[in-house]
UniProtKB/TrEMBL annotation:
It is found in: Secreted. Pfam families: CAP. Belongs to the CRISP family. The gene is LOC115626305. It comes from Drosophila lebanonensis. InterPro entries: CAP_dom (IPR014044), CAP_sf (IPR035940), P14a_insect (IPR034763). The keyword Mitochondrion does not apply. Residues 63-219 form the SCP domain. This is Venom allergen 5. SMART domains: SCP. Residues 1-23 form the signal peptide. GO terms for cellular component: extracellular region. Keywords: Secreted, Signal. It comes from the Eukaryota.
Length: 285
């Protein structure tokens, strides 16, 4: 592969890391709405300005990938059962699998030592990619990646305590976006990136970014409900997580219920003669 032709372009980097079938040009195609910049466009894989000189991308070996998948599917199976914290049983919740392209994009994102999600991380396969990110600060290097991952994934999941039965945040309560993303019914695939660096010359900080094949959009439900868990699965259930569908269950992760998206509504005001005096636009809530 002639990567020397690309001067450290994102296309070259991803072509090396991924199979040729998923090495796209992330600058020339329209990936996200509002012409937002894709995380892989003109990204040479260098560390961001917010990272310290000691920043180090942690390799996600098979053990770490399997740990992430097990924990997330364990949490999804728990909620999908219909016997946990008042949440209804899930009709057809997917089992999460690993996706190399989502993982590579997550690595590019985590190498910025981010505080906010990146603007765009969609792919040709997944048009509405969701993202969760966070960090753990600790005072010693003795903590393993698995220990820190378990801590952060657990924090995301424990947001359920602030959710109502419809998986919405309790009015006036803290954000539960991470928990809602973990439970997104059609989040069939995931890819994560992990980075460690020294924070303020003393504390160690581990960042984690995870990309999901599907994000929550508008007023679409996080998952469809049923009286019996996994009753809508067409290809059977996951033997390890029986409240989730089998790994080969087919989902359309890109279809959007446009009725669930807030739309632009035009209000026309009339004067005494019945003519328009002005038009005002506002978004429905």
């Amino acid at each position: 592969m002639s990567c020397w032709l690309y001067t450290l372009s994102a296309l070259c980097i991803l072509a090396n890391l991924l199979a040729p079938s998923v090495a796209w040009n992330y600058c020339s195609e329209h990936w996200c709405k509002e012409a937002r910049s894709h995380i892989a466009c003109n990204n040479n894989g260098s560390y961001g300005r917010s990272c310290s000189k000691e920043a180090e991308l942690r390799p996600l070996n098979v053990q770490l990938r399997n740990f992430i998948l097990h924990k997330i599917n364990f949490y999804r199976n728990k909620v999908a059962s219909g016997n946990f914290s008042g949440f209804a049983a899930a009709h057809r919740m997917a089992s999460v699998q690993w996706d190399p392209e989502l993982a590579t994009l997550a690595e590019l994102a985590v190498k910025q030592c981010p505080r906010q999600p990146d603007e765009c991380r969609n792919t040709r396969r997944f048009k509405h990619v969701g993202q969760i990110l966070g960090h753990v600060i600790f005072s010693t290097k003795r903590y393993s990646d698995i220990q820190l991952l378990e801590h952060k994934l657990g924090n995301w999941f424990r947001q359920y305590k602030r959710a109502n039965s419809q998986l919405n945040a309790v009015e006036g309560g803290p954000d539960i976006t991470s928990f809602r993303q973990l439970m997104q019914e059609r989040a069939t695939h995931i890819g994560c990136g992990i980075l460690r660096h020294v924070h303020r010359h003393r504390w160690h900080k581990q960042f984690i970014v995870c990309n999901f094949a599907r994000e929550n959009i508008g007023r679409e439900p996080v998952y469809g409900v049923a009286t019996k868990p996994a009753s809508g699965c067409k290809m059977g259930v996951n033997p390890k997580f029986p409240n989730l569908c089998a790994l080969h269950e087919a989902y359309d992760v890109n279809v959007v219920d446009h009725l669930a998206i807030p739309r632009l509504r035009i209000k026309l005001k009339y004067n005494e003669e019945g003519m328009h005096s002005k038009a005002a636009a506002n978004r429905t809530l």
